[in-house]
Each structure stands twice: as structure tokens, then as C-alpha cells.
Design brief:
single chain; 409 residues; alpha+beta; Nucleotidyltransferase, domain 5; 3 domains; 5-stranded mixed β-sheet; 4-stranded mixed β-sheet; elongated
């Protein structure tokens, strides 16, 4: 099979023909031209029109052949469209004004989901900017062609982009488990920007929003989406509770150290934080011994385990009664960290109990945030927030790649 036939088959040329193929020391140059008396499609409406004039030659970088760079050389025509006026023809292998062919954009974008951008650039012997532009084109196409009308439940969480408390707000579709939007910061303006970009139709379809107890998120959600049910993530609540239990343990360690009994709670940190079913046999023995001493951390541990019963109730009313009972236990436990956590529950009681109306949580969001960190680590981070957001959407957004007649990957 000749190179000419390979190019003709992979590009599926109908309105154009191959004039010549030249092989140099650096690349294979393929010269194209339009077929005689062939009307060409308009770039905007795809209506076939007569050619008016010819533009200077342009060069497109194509998918390499046997590791040899391939370039397409063609002089685009301008057509006289009755609807759109005088306009450049629709070039089948091109996307917009990009000097990369559509098959190359698809190929680079596909591998950029699996590898870091610099690794893809080395693999295809192109520059970092070439792969970056391909990803940018693919993300733009994917966002333009995605359907967000059926999204009803979203999860909001932040992720650290680099050292120095530089955060990004990531927003996920909890049903499809894909990233919808990513923006720099975790402020009120950041979340407002998301709702502004998605539009009123998107916000009106939302039924439930899950987030942690970060005040800027709470304020904007209640301001922009008052009809949706705001649910506080129960995994974040458990994290606050575990921190309170650990504070009690630290205070107890200091107290026993003053009494010369520092070995009693030595190496027991994770015994108090784990679920009982996850304890090893040695940890179970240690827990049984320490519980007999009736320490303060034992009371904190029992309160922690009793709080887990809250999520087993089937109705909001029963859960509210149980939370009231647990609040009394915690506030009368003489354990300050547990008292503080109990008052935290009291301040956000309604939004915590909303889970019994709309049972969503950020478990999937946390898992996808871990994937986002892995993507950032494989590239050793990104310098700009725009690049970070673009790569996150490309890898985690479930966006469709532009279609083409021949698959190169």
C-alpha cells in the first residue's frame, strides 16, 4: 500500500485530491488541492457553494507515520455563500484555526489523559505547547457538546493545587461521578463564578448539593440555589468527631505523663479512631484493657461509636430525637472537645439532618479528588490555575473527544 493511499483512506478525502508527496530529511510533506469543478462546503452552514478565490498555502501537522513527522500543505478556498457571504471553506481535517489536524488533536488529547503532557510531547516528538493546544481544543469541544440538563445532585469540595494554601474548588456530578467545573480559590466569588457560567437553567434543575461546613460555600448555595436541599457531608462530620476524640487522647496522655504512667496510652492513637470491625487482634486486646480503667478517652470513644447510630435511622424525625439525646450526652461528658463538636452539630442541625431527605454524600467526590491529586503529581504540578483546571476537566470530566472517520489510537 502506498503512502498516498494511506493518506486518502485515513482522511477520507472527497472534495480534495493529493497532488504530490515529498519526503525530506525532516518530514513527509503531502500537497493537497481541491478537485476540479467541485463545490466546497461553507464553514458555518456546510452549504456547498462555488469557490471565489484562493488563499496562500497553509501547513497542518498530521499524525506521524513510522515515527516520521507528516505535514499537510493546502491552499484554502473562499466560497461565496448566499447565507454567510464570502467565507473560508470547511476543511475536513482541521478544527478552527489550529495548525494541527483533527486526527492529531484527537491522538494527543487521548494520550494526555493517560500521561503527563511533557511525556506525550516526547512520545510524538512535538513541543509541550502543541500537546497543550490539542488538549485545549479537545476540552473546548467537549464542554460545548456535553449535556448538563440532567444533573440534579452535585458535590462541592476543595483541593490543594500547590504549597502555600493555594486551593481549587472542584464541583462534581454525584450521579455520573464526573467533574463539572474547576476554578481557583475556595471563596464566595469562586462559587458564584461557577453558577454564573452554568446558567439559571442548570441551577433550577438542581435538587441536592453536598458540601462541607465551609461558610463561603454555604452562603453562596443558599443565595443562588435556595430551592435545592443543602446536605453537609457526613464524612466531614466524622472527621471533625475523630479530631475531637484525638484531642481528648492527647490531653489524657499529658495527664498520665504527669502521673508517671505514660505507657498506658502509648501507641493507641488509631485504636480510638478506627471502627471496631477494623481493629486487629492486638488492638482489640489493648482496647479491652484500657476500657477497664474508665479513662476520659474511653468516654470519648463510646460517644464516637454511639454517634454512628445516627445514620441508621430511617426518618428525619427519629434522627432528630436521637441527635438531641446525643447532644445531651456530649455536653454532659465533661470533655471539652466533644462539647465543642456537639455545639457544632446544634448550629448546623437542619442541614445535617437534610441527609435523611436527600441521601447524598461526598464519598465519590473525595475519591475523585484523590484521582485529581494523582494527575497533578504525575506532571509534578502545574504553574497556572487555568492549566490545572483544563487538565482536570480533560481527565476527570468525561468529555467526548472530537469524532473522526479513522481511529489512530
Amino acid at each position: 500500500m502506498s503512502i498516498e493511499k494511506i493518506v486518502r483512506e485515513t482522511l477520507k478525502l472527497t472534495d480534495h485530491k493529493i497532488l504530490n508527496i515529498e519526503m525530506t530529511d525532516e518530514s513527509i510533506d503531502i500537497y493537497l488541492d481541491k478537485k476540479v469543478l467541485r463545490r466546497l462546503p461553507c464553514r458555518n452552514c456546510s452549504r456547498r457553494c462555488r469557490c471565489r478565490d484562493q488563499l496562500p498555502p497553509r501547513i497542518w501537522t498530521h499524525v506521524s507515520l513510522w515515527g516520521i513527522p507528516v505535514c499537510l500543505v493546502y491552499s484554502p478556498r473562499r466560497v461565496k455563500c448566499p447565507s454567510c457571504g464570502i467565507i473560508v471553506e470547511k476543511i475536513p481535517w482541521s478544527m478552527g484555526k489550529s495548525r494541527l489536524t483533527l486526527p492529531l488533536i484527537i491522538t494527543l488529547a487521548f494520550f494526555a489523559r493517560l500521561l503527563a503532557i511533557d511525556q506525550v510531547a516526547n512520545l510524538y516528538r512535538v513541543s509541550w505547547g502543541t500537546v497543550s493546544n490539542a488538549v485545549k481544543k479537545a476540552v473546548k469541544f467537549g464542554i460545548h457538546n456535553r449535556d448538563c440538563s440532567n444533573i440534579q445532585y452535585i458535590g462541592i469540595d476543595e483541593i490543594s493545587r500547590k504549597k502555600g494554601h493555594v486551593y481549587h474548588t472542584n464541583i462534581y456530578d454525584l450521579d455520573k461521578k464526573v467533574l463539572i467545573w474547576s476554578g481557583e480559590g475556595r471563596t464566595m466569588d469562586t462559587l458564584r463564578q461557577f453558577f454564573d457560567e452554568m446558567g439559571k437553567e442548570f441551577t433550577s434543575n438542581l435538587k441536592g448539593i453536598c458540601c462541607d461546613m465551609w461558610k463561603p460555600y454555604i452562603s453562596v448555595v443558599k443565595e443562588r440555589v435556595p430551592n435545592a436541599v443543602l446536605v453537609f457531608d457526613k464524612f466531614h462530620l466524622i472527621r471533625y468527631l475523630l479530631n475531637a476524640v484525638d484531642k481528648v487522647r492527647k490531653d489524657e496522655v499529658k495527664r498520665y505523663k504527669q502521673l508517671g504512667k505514660e505507657n498506658i496510652l502509648k501507641k493507641t492513637k488509631y485504636i480510638w479512631l478506627k471502627n471496631p470491625c477494623n481493629l486487629t487482634s492486638n488492638q482489640e486486646q489493648s482496647l479491652g484493657y484500657i476500657q477497664k480503667l474508665n479513662t476520659r478517652v474511653t468516654r470519648a470513644y463510646l460517644l464516637k461509636e454511639s454517634f454512628r447510630e445516627l445514620w441508621k435511622h430511617r426518618s428525619k424525625e427519629k434522627a432528630k430525637k436521637y441527635m438531641k439525646k446525643w447532644f445531651w450526652w456530649a455536653t454532659h461528658s465533661r470533655l471539652k472537645p466533644l462539647r465543642d463538636f456537639a455545639w457544632l452539630l446544634r448550629r448546623h442541625e437542619e442541614d445535617i439532618l437534610s441527609w435523611f431527605e436527600v441521601r447524598i454524600d461526598n464519598g465519590a467526590t473525595e475519591a475523585m479528588n484523590n484521582n485529581a491529586k494523582a494527575i497533578s503529581h504525575r506532571a509534578r504540578g502545574y504553574r497556572t490555575s487555568d492549566m490545572f483546571s483544563m487538565v482536570m476537566l480533560h481527565c476527570l470530566g468525561g468529555l467526548k473527544l472530537p469524532g473522526f472517520l479513522h481511529k489512530f489510537v
